[in-house]
Amino acid sequence: MKVVKTLKHPITSHHRMLDATLHVYQEALSFLITVIQEQFMALKSLSTQAVVTAVERLTHRTRHNPDPLYTEFDQRFYKFPSYFRRSAIAEAFGIVKSHHSRFELWQAERQHAQQEGKRFSKKPPILQAQHQAFPCLYKGNMFIRTSHTTANIKVFHQGDWVWLPITFKGQDLFKRNVWSMKECSPTLVRTGKRYALHIAYEGDVKLTQTEPSKQRVCAVDLGLTNSAVCSVMDASGTVLARTFINQAKEKDRMRQITGKLKQAQRQSGIGTKPNFWRRINGLQTHIVHDTAHQILAFAQKHRADVIVMEYLGKMRLPKGTWGAKRFRAKLQFWAKRCIQTKVTEMAHFLGMRVSMVNPANTSALAFDGSGFVQRNTKRDVAVFTTGKMYHADLNASYNIGARYVLRNIQKSTSEMRWLSLEAKDPSLAKRTYWTLASLIRVQQALRLQT
């Protein structure tokens, strides 16, 4: 499969001198969004390449096109590079097309609510002309590399487009494992007051082809008390390793900040509160990245072939909660989704497979098959019906891995043979009741049949 990895190269030689280039590109993008919105009915059925050609005829004067409809573009953006113009047209068309798709979905939701006689208060989406977009510096035309850490780029300076030599921080391509991949054109990105070149590397990765009966599974439960609990097991159900991943200090800071944010909102109303959100987003990003890296390191250490996680679906907030507690539940769900996305990207880059299983009852059922469990107030300990006490998230990770292995066994087993297994173990009839004990019983039954 094709994978893409982007490396950040901070520019060390210039900062404020690049502001004009970014500003003129974003202004041109806003102008083109307005043009495409006005002509969208004629453009919506065309491909992106055809739209680029059509909009160029509407905005850019040439010898063969002396009278474009929108002459203001050439007047406002004199000598605007053709590669920038085509890139901005393609990006503007995507923005406008996305807006119309969201507007059609809003209309369908409103019509559905009216048919059912329900109140519909959701506001329609509004097309925004101003976007924080970043230009792509195409190789040879806008970007010429002169060494490992230097290059010449075309920028807008003092009313003209000129070549500017820059110096940027290099990256160890061997350490980042992209030395054999194709280097794409860089993107000029601003973060705060600093600029960087984001260079993407494309390559092909072959995912593991291990037979299901010989696979090692790394089951991950994104729990409530821990960021993640992982366990590695083989196809027979033998647990080979386990680990607990948590960021206690960061979560303690997050709890304090969310409490202060809700207190400030009670006093002064719901506002943007940028200082609180900056700290929350920083902690959230650190938790996501640290958790994902530890999961991949654990899976690599124990030579796992596939990483299995729960399919989260839509957000389900706990009933009877409000204020900071409800807000923390939202943050936790968003973090889980980000962790899954990050783990999937990193695993595919390393050649590992990623699979999702049904999350129903993974934490509610005991892995030893004794039935439903009771959770304590903190919800970190599960008490089995036999009186045994076990870590709730670790119990869930066993069931997650077992469900993946059982699903592979069911796919490779004939229906007649599987029905005979269900007759001996009725809990196999529903996937939401599969546990580690179910996997062990199925493996024993299959060995007896052979």
UniProtKB/TrEMBL annotation:
GO molecular function, one term: DNA binding
Protein name: Transposase, IS605 OrfB family protein
UniProt superkingdom: Bacteria
Record's keyword terms, sorted: DNA-binding
